[in-house]
Amino acid sequence: MSILFDRDNVDIKEFIVKSVERTGGIVDEMGDDLLGALLPPEIAATAASDSVLTLALSQKAAESEPDAAMAVIGTPIMDALIGFASGIGTTSISAIYLDNIRKKGLKEEAERILTYSQCRLRTDNSVPVTVRDCYYAVFHFRLAFVSYEKRERIETIVVSLDTNVVNNVVVEALRSIPTEPIFISADAPPFDSKRIKAAYESAKKEASQRAQTESAAYLSAISRRFQLEANRLAEYYDQTDRELRRRLDKEADQKKRESVITKQHAAKLEKSRKLAELGEKYRLRPRAALTSIQIVRQPKSCFNIFVDKGKQTRTVTLIYDSLLGRLEPPICDRCDCEMTRIFVTGSNEHLCISCSGKGATAVS
Ligand SMILES: [Zn+2]
């Protein structure tokens, strides 16, 4: 079953357009990455902006139109739009501040957790562990399961903008840890929209999978109810059919017989129409719509390890997350999944078990 995404090809531009429109504003395309907007007064006030303005969706567009306001993730306009459009969250970029960022013993932890096959793992203690800002994109989807009744809920999916991997573990932590809003100045370079788009694709895939799993469970309940109603319907028309047959058997008058036959025919048609209607009523239509995007910044420890394969050496940058107390495993070169068991191929590709084709029988 496929999940219908309400705004399937959503990008930042479309998100802005829809958000402005949903809040009662008006948007006009003015050129590449430029939008003319008439904002409702509440949004204009929240964003400390004029009601009538030009929005630039890229640095280039902002340069071509000096009076335009930047509308990229993290700017006051985007914050106001996201806050109003989604009804949840008031800032689009926020930061987590951590008191303790672990730097010690990380290389040893990497050696303990990661198993590299057919190569040699080397750590270099003279290379320091550094701390760098990493980013998550937090997507809120409204998932709806529409059938004879409608079930709806908000699903939060967090994707690392550094690795493009969905992180289910961090969702709870993000709910409980205080974050502080960051405002990006209007002349700062825009947030890399390519990474956000890639993250959105990953989030959509995840949302689809979750909706599929839920649909499957929901479907069995629906089909039981459908069967019940379909049986009732069939019983009713069977009874009508029996009655009409009896009348036909007793009827001698040709004209009256024809009338009964017409009725039989009509009843048959009605039955199949009613059944089709019932099928439509009970058809499960899962839908998903993006309601908001937020970006969360978190400082993480970062260090390099070296993987020697023959004469070649590959440097792998690993990240340690002090919030979750978790070493983020490296990513498979082919399927982008996290892997703790890494197979290094002759052409120096780093692959997970399934991509390497070694399966469960592989030995390290
Ligand atoms: Zn893989």
How would you describe this protein?
- The chain has 364 residues and is an alpha+beta fold.
- Among the domains are: 1-90, no CATH class; 217-285.
- It is 38% helix and 29% strand.
- The chain contains nine helices and 16 strands.
- The strands form three sheets. Strands 1, 6, 8, 9, 10, 11, 12, 13 and 14 form a nine-stranded mixed beta sheet that branches. A four-stranded mixed beta sheet has the order 2-3-4-5. A three-stranded mixed beta sheet has the order 7-15-16.
- Strand 15 and strand 16 form a beta hairpin.
- Helix 1 (12-22) crosses helix 4 (76-86) and helix 7 packs antiparallel against helix 8 (254-282).
- The protein is flat.
- The mean pLDDT is 84.
- The chain binds zinc ion.
- Zinc ion is lined by residues 332, 334-335, 337, 351-352, 354-355.
Name the ligand types: zinc ion
Number of helices: 9
Average pLDDT for all residues: 84
Largest sheet: 9 strands, mixed
Give the fraction of residues assigned to helices. 25-40%
Beta content comes to 25-35%
| Radius of gyration using CA atoms only | 29 Å
Give the H and E element order.
EHEEHEHEHEHEEEEHEHHEEEEEH
Distance between the termini: 39 Å
Produce the secondary structure layout:
Elements: E1 4-5, H1 12-22, E2 26-31, E3 34-38, H2 41-46, E4 52-56, H3 59-64, E5 69-70, H4 76-86, E6 93-96, H5 106-113, E7 115-117, E8 120-123, E9 130-146, E10 150-160, H6 170-176, E11 179-181, H7 193-250, H8 254-282, E12 285-309, E13 312-321, E14 326-328, E15 341-344, E16 350-351, H9 353-356
Parallel strand pairs: 1-12, 4-5, 6-12, 7-15
Antiparallel strand pairs: 2-3, 3-4, 6-11, 8-12, 9-10, 9-12, 12-13, 13-14, 15-16
Helix pairs in contact: 1-4, 7-8
The chain binds zinc ion.
